[in-house]
Automatic annotation (TrEMBL):
Matches recorded under InterPro entries: MoaB/Mog-like_dom_sf, MoaB/Mog_dom, MoeA-like, MoeA_C_domain_IV, MoeA_C_domain_IV_sf, MoeA_linker/N, MoeA_linker/N_sf
Domain MoaB/Mog: from-to ranges: 199-337
Protein name: Molybdopterin molybdenumtransferase
Organism of origin: Fontibacillus phaseoli
Pfam families: MoCF_biosynth (PF00994), MoeA_C (PF03454), MoeA_N (PF03453)
Function (record text): Catalyzes the insertion of molybdate into adenylated molybdopterin with the concomitant release of AMP.
A biological-process GO annotation: Mo-molybdopterin cofactor biosynthetic process
Domain of life of the native organism: Bacteria
This protein's pathway: Cofactor biosynthesis; molybdopterin biosynthesis
GO cellular component assignments: cytosol
Alphabetically ordered keywords of this record: Magnesium, Metal-binding, Molybdenum, Molybdenum cofactor biosynthesis, Transferase
EC numbers on record: 2.10.1.1
Amino acid sequence: MSASNQDGHDEKFKRKAISVKEGQAKILSFVGKGEQERVALPEAQGRILAEDIYAPHPYPHFRRSGMDGFALLSNDTIGCSTDKPVFLEVVDEIPCGSLPSVSLIPGTVARIMTGAKVPDEADAVVMFEMTESTESQGKAYIELKREIKSGSNITPVGLELKEGDLILEKGRRLSAGEISVLATFGIYSVPVIKRPLVAIFSTGSELLGVEEPLQDGRIRNSNTYMLASQIRDAGGEPYILEAIADDLATARQKVQEAFVLYDMVVTTGGVSVGDFDIMADLVSGEDVDMLFNKITMRPGSVTTGAVKDGKLLFALSGNPGACFVGFELFVRPAIGTMLGISQPFLKEIQATLGREYVKVNNFTRFVRGRLELEEGRLVAYPAMLDESSVMVTIKDSDVLIVIPPSSRGVQPGERVTVLQLPGAR
Ligand SMILES: Nc1nc2c(c(=O)[nH]1)N[C@H]1C(S)=C(S)[C@@H](COP(=O)(O)OP(=O)(O)OC[C@H]3O[C@@H](n4cnc5c(N)ncnc54)[C@H](O)[C@@H]3O)O[C@H]1N2
Ligand code: MOO
Ligand SMILES: [Mg+2]
């Protein structure tokens, strides 16, 4: 007997398709913002900042030498030239990290290293290469043959940031530049949004573990690992749970348990109309409130969204291409919104189609493809194999090319919108 008949639901056949935008809007209306936590700076990579950060002090906070050379009073160099050199006495040495030990008076200079604090009286630094060192009566002098402009080679206080400047806005993803700022301002304990914990279930009696030997009629479970990678990339923390064989009662129980422990549940497989498509039955039952079970898109027309006590369930297709696209269009924005990212959708750009795409469909297609820069134009090439069931070309794609419903397809040279896949290869 089919899983569907056992449960008395045949809702899965009567589906009302909604658009991608409508589906996304439904999802986002149920997404709450994640809680905060603090992580140590070395662990902050890729995390989303939870608070605005203001500069606690100016940067730099002291006048800094930009060269290895001599700090001087520029007035002492007025009128000097090759014919009329000036001799200035070296009265101090300031390595990086040390403070000047004497006050400079006219006629004196301090030897200073790049990054060291410039004496208050000095208004310029001249690099070693522009000076000659001499000695007279046991005293060290430099000989200068040109005028030095006031301000030369001195980085003023607050050149980069003034005290109180907004330096990093909340919602920002932390990478090298942000981490450098946090380190500069002594922020080791970084306020970030907690990563949503996302449970992954695969469904299907055909699935073998990745390390199991191949068997006829069965395949290894690739979607789970693909999804875990997508979840991590989107800023979530994936939890791979034991695969569910095609049994509705077990699926129900496991999904309910997952809702208690995790912030979101993602499943793959079993959402179409097949006899063992248990997820389709599960979402049309009492366990969850179904938001949609059909989207006017390909692949992934059976992408399903549901909610239970404010937590989202995404039942993605089992076909790898559809599973991938369903994640990118629905799950990624949901995770992004939980993290407080202001624009959680794939970035849209305009390109020219590089090769015809003539498969017709009355749903919008999201065709995996590659973006190339050719003579200053962005050209999008659809993958040669783009069927929903095809796995191998996902790795070669950096965009999803949006092909609107049409009976004639799209010709090379026509404008298309493409959605940029994150972490473009
Ligand atoms: N009569 C109809 N049949 C189908 C329809 C339809 O409208 N009417 N839709 C087709 C479309 S479109 C898609 S997409 C698939 C959706 O299938 P399901 O989401 O129900 O997924 P399954 O039936 O479980 O599996 C489909 C396919 O994917 C393979 N699979 C499943 N899980 C994994 C995994 N974890 N890793 C790798 N591959 C996986 C599975 O073996 C099947 O080959 O339905 C069409 N049928
Ligand atoms: O749901 Mo299927 O992926 O449209 O081909
Ligand atoms: Mg199926």
